[in-house]
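User: Reviewer 2 asked us to show a designed sequence for the structure in our supplementary figure. I'm pasting the structure tokens here. Could you produce the per-position amino acids so we can include them in the response letter?
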């Protein structure tokens, strides 16, 4: 999955038409979300095994909402 996201970044740099660049960026963002989902699933497994370390992290809800709207 990481290779797919990296390749999408390289491909976006080579494209000229804005609609193609936007399509590749959508693929990249979707790949990033899938990687995040896999990380979340792994975290759930750690929770079940009582091995999860919890850290506070800043979250910007408007940024998350903007990303969701762009994917749709």
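Assistant: Here is a per-position design you can include in the supplement:
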């Amino acid at each position: 999955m990481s290779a797919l996201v990296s390749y999408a970044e390289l491909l976006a740099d080579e494209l000229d038409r804005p609609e193609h660049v936007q399509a590749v960026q959508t693929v990249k963002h979707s790949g990033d979300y899938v990687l995040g989902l896999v990380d979340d699933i792994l975290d759930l497994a750690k929770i079940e095994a009582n091995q999860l370390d919890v850290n506070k992290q800043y979250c910007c809800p408007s940024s998350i909402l903007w990303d969701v709207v762009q994917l749709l």
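For the response letter, you might also mention the following. The chain has a mean pLDDT of 88. The chain has one domain: 2-71.
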